[in-house]
User: Fold this.
Amino acid sequence: MNVAPALIRGYEVVIGLETHTQLSTASKIFSGASTAFGAAPNTQACAVDLALPGSLPVMNRGAVERAIRFGLAVGGQIAPLSIFARKNYFYPDLPKGYQISQYELPVVQGGTVEFYLGDAPHKVRLTRAHLEEDAGKSLHEAFDGMSGIDLNRAGTPLLEIVSEPDMRSSKEAVEYAKALHALVVWLGICDGNMQEGSFRCDANVSVRRPGAPFGTRREVKNLNSFRFLQQAIDFEIQWQIDQLEDGLRIQQATVLFDPDSGETRTMRSKEDAHDYRYFPDPDLPPLVIAPEWVERVKGEMPELPSVMAARFERDDGLAAADATMMTQSLAFARFYEATKAAGAAPKLAANWLMGEMSRRLNAEDKALEAAPVDAPTLAAMINRIQDGTISNSGAKQVFDWLWGLSDAIGDKGPAMVDEIIDGKGLRQLSDSGELERIVDEVLAANPKSVDEYRAGKDKAFNALVGQAMKASKGKANPSQLNELLKKKLG
Assistant:
């Protein structure tokens, strides 16, 4: 459950997110036009997308199935009957003069998204998820200072996911957005490409004194990166508090975030639902979803992250937070499973994925799919830790070499682990006779430390271990060395 929120300058922050998720259909929501990204402007907008006289919209079945899949994943209610409405507003990139969306009866109602903020579990309730079409795109400063309109995106299917105002910090909002992003990609309903606009967030932000009613919210539009989401919310929080502290009122508004200045600026006064004059679209019949359809979609769904994480806790002995980390994305889960399948101990596999692997990927801004060290190679290295061939510090050196040799590894990675261990002299000394000789020499050369240990000073033992490791040039098997030292010291 969520923890008590921290106050900022004596104010509580209230955040809700509206997330526009572009669905992964090949064609648009009401027409057969392509949704492929990157085509020349205005080459993928047909008569239906433009609402030319005589053209009629037809519902895309694939978009509905993706909405059902999402609703099942978050534990929402799938509406047996939902209605499409016209949302009326005028903007240059909205060719119809209205947007086909859902208002009173959305396809998904309720549900929750669960995630971790550090080691603390959090849960955000969902209000709804509804189907709608996307607008076109305004292109500024592309034509000698003039603006142009690209209608390729018009009619692209969206699932707008609306949360309750349950979040109390920008960090919590970012973690929720990351969890939602991972889920829609996991389900295969969205490619998650934020640079291309496939997943973008609007943040509703307000502040209040603890226990007071909700404050007036301002909506920050079209945030297409997690970094911008956090920066925009943080700026908006401080701006609103400054306004209130100066005795001014917050005016409900839609604002834009400028990444260059790190500031938000007002775009227009915020509309309410009645300003859009919603009414049922006369060209579209009600969307009827039979129970049999829902059951068929349920049977085709992949194992959900929460179910998989519970399996990793139960079968692999992972801590809850670690199991959740292993299911942060489908790629991460598959990598972890493949590492285990190649013989790696589950806890060691998880530790290396969360530790050195994630550190290197983050430092080089790489996706896991682009990791130079693949699952079989990582497993081969972990196996050498398990069988005592190398120490953890030696394994780190092996990992660094494997990462640096990535262009030449190919499918030779597992075999190269042993080559690097031998070539760099990293194999641990586990010969009992040789270890005993080293221990005897260290004890004879350090009688003061021996006496201190036997007098009850535990730090003296660490000094003796250090001397023994130094004598073995760092190659002694630590567990064997410790056991032998304790035996010799009585």
Remarks:
- The first strand starts at residue 12 and ends at 22.
